[in-house]
Design a protein that fits this description.
The chain is built from 7 helices and 2 strands, in the order H-H-H-H-H-H-H-E-E. It is mostly helical and about 160 residues long. It has a two-stranded antiparallel ribbon with strand order 1-2. The chain has 2 domains: about 50 residues; about 100 residues, no CATH class. It starts with 8 loop residues before the first helix and ends in a 33-residue tail after the last strand.
Length: about 160
Amino acid sequence: MAAKLPENDTILQEMLIAGFKEVEIAKFYGVGVSTVSMRLAKMGIRRIGPKSPVSAAIPWDITSHPEKRRFINQTCFRGLRCFVRKQMGEKLSERSEHDLKVFLNRIRGGNVLALVEGGFAYVPRQESDGSLVIRWPENVPHNAHVALFDCGAHQAK
């Protein structure tokens, strides 16, 4: 039987009141975080707070960029988010698994993802990129999240 959220909205409300985060609810029920978010939205609950762990890890802050909507809908950026989610141990939906596969195929083809004029794009890997799946922005120091972008474990898959 496929994993799913409980039909009773009260259970989800009680979990939120108890302090569960959407990511924790998703793991508990074996579903994706987006499934929980959509269900909460249907219930009229919109959670606004700090960035998601995935968004916080990505070194480009596009939260207030005028083209944010277009950026986040780019296939390559969705693939990057799926890569990071997988690295964080999150269960991916079928669509997310597909986006990840497309992303990894481009990475294995000798590319990295970079923010260029006009949005995100795959660019040829340079020696300075090392084994990262992205071209780390020059103005952003490497931090604890940099390991999430290492493609070494995914090269043979």
